[in-house]
Specification:
Number of helices: 1
Number of domains: 1
Radius of gyration: 17 Å
Distance between the termini: 42 Å
Region (Disordered): 1-24
Number of strands: 5
Structural class: mainly beta
Largest sheet: 5 strands, antiparallel
Helix content: under 10%
Main location: cytoplasm
Keywords: Cytoplasm, mRNA processing, mRNA splicing, Nucleus, Ribonucleoprotein, RNA-binding, Spliceosome
Organism: Miscanthus lutarioriparius
CATH topology: SH3 type barrels
Strand content: over 45%
Order of helices and strands: HEEEEE
Biased composition (Gly residues): 1-16
Length: 91
């Protein structure tokens, strides 16, 4: 048997509420992100949408190769279910 309330669970945070992955994904929409592909190419822009397959839609997207700006796109879509990227940084 478990002793204690639901707020005592590990990882529940100081407020006793636990954030689900879905809550986290909703909270980062509209924020600047960097998506780094396994190829080393970075895409920097505003996160518009992210789904359960890790497909990413971005706005005001810039493409960087070897740290240098190569292209600017209004909107970009990165397909995620084939494991094309390995890092998403949120600013």
């Amino acid at each position: 048997m478990s002793g204690g309330g639901g707020g005592d669970r590990p990882g529940s945070g100081a407020g006793g509420t636990m954030k689900t992955p879905s809550d986290f994904l909703k909270s980062i929409r509209g924020r600047p992100v960097v998506v780094k592909l396994n190829s080393g190419v970075d895409y920097r822009g505003i996160l518009a949408c992210l789904d359960g397959y890790m497909n990413i839609a971005m706005e005001q997207t810039e493409e960087y190769i070897n740290g240098q700006l190569k292209n600017k796109y209004g909107d970009a879509f990165i397909r995620g279910n084939n494991g094309t990227y390995n890092t998403i940084r949120i600013f």
